[in-house]
Design brief:
Number of helices: 13
Structural class: mainly alpha
Order of helices and strands: HHHHHHHHHHHHH
Radius of gyration: 18 Å
Distance between the termini: 24 Å
Shape: globular
Largest sheet: none
Oligomer: single chain
């Protein structure tokens, strides 16, 4: 197996492992948790730029304008993402983030004029089918009941909102790559996010963690190492291969939710996650 594929699988594993830690930090402000995550992300991306890229910005005005569009989307995505895991089962809301691939299609068309092939639209259908299977109840079958099962969970609203803003953020990032090296853009984005979340970091402070310091440290570490593997891995294999492998986090979310969280409805959520992974692959290659 090429090492890039291994990095993709490890990145998916770390993303899901991070989600598990967030589940155990329900009482903390999402802004505080994101301050921890982005601080780790800044450290990692700074090292990657130093060793694998160069510290050279394009026009300052171009940089500023692009970041003004991307950073608010990333703030909304990060907030909704963390809140979703704080409110609802990991095995349900984790795979829902795959809807970002669906929202990416209109966003990419608006910003960069890209449309997927028929295979990509087949992937969209697979993601929707997977979403219904996630919440399907064998004792109360039906699309209406499946939708009710999803939307009675408060975390579903946060995750779907995060998926929406992530779709537009990714499209904006694709647009920005005309001007930025990808790793350098990642550093400045995460750096801006860290600065904007610093007030929450100082308001709450490390002393608020007390006995919860271990999951907080593991969450930040998983995010930081995942960032490193993401940018190194994506340089080793074709980008769509790597992004498709990252969607295996859907499956890991279901497994972790069952093994570590004792969550119910394992079989249908596992099958639903597989449909959503397949859909993401079709969209990526469409």
């Amino acid at each position: 197996m090429p090492i890039g594929f291994l990095f993709g699988i490890l990145t998916a594993f770390l993303a899901s492992f991070q989600n598990t830690q967030i589940r155990s930090l329900k009482t903390f402000s999402p802004y505080f948790l994101n301050a921890l995550r982005f601080s780790a992300g800044v450290l990692v991306t700074a090292l990657i730029v130093t060793f694998f890229s160069e510290w050279r910005l394009p026009s300052l005005w171009v940089s500023f304008l692009i970041l003004c569009f991307v950073v608010p989307l990333e703030i909304a995505t990060a907030y909704g993402y963390v809140r979703a895991f704080q409110y609802s089962p990991q095995s349900l809301v984790g795979p829902l983030f795959s809807f970002s691939m669906v929202f990416l299609i209109p966003a990419s068309y608006i910003l960069v004029g890209e449309l997927p092939s028929p295979r990509g639209f087949l992937g969209v259908g697979s993601i929707f089918v997977g979403g219904f299977i996630l919440s399907w109840d064998a004792y109360k079958p039906g699309i209406r009941n499946a939708l009710f099962s999803i939307f009675r969970e408060r975390g579903s609203y946060f995750m779907l909102t995060a998926a929406l803003t992530a779709g537009f953020s990714v499209a904006m990032i694709k647009f920005s790559l005309q001007y930025f090296p990808p790793v350098l853009f990642a550093f400045w984005t995460v750096f801006a996010l860290m600065l904007l979340h610093l007030p929450a970091f100082f308001i709450h402070g490390f002393f608020t963690l007390r006995e919860k310091w271990k999951p907080a440290f593991l969450m930040a570490g998983a995010f930081g190492v995942g960032q490193a593997l993401h940018y190194i891995g994506i340089s080793l294999i074709v980008a769509v291969y790597f992004i498709s492998l990252k969607r295996l986090s859907n499956v890991f979310d279901v497994l972790f939710g069952r093994i570590l969280g004792g969550e119910d409805h394992f079989l249908q959520r596992f099958i639903g996650a597989l449909f959503m992974v397949a859909g993401a692959v079709f969209v990526a290659f469409g």
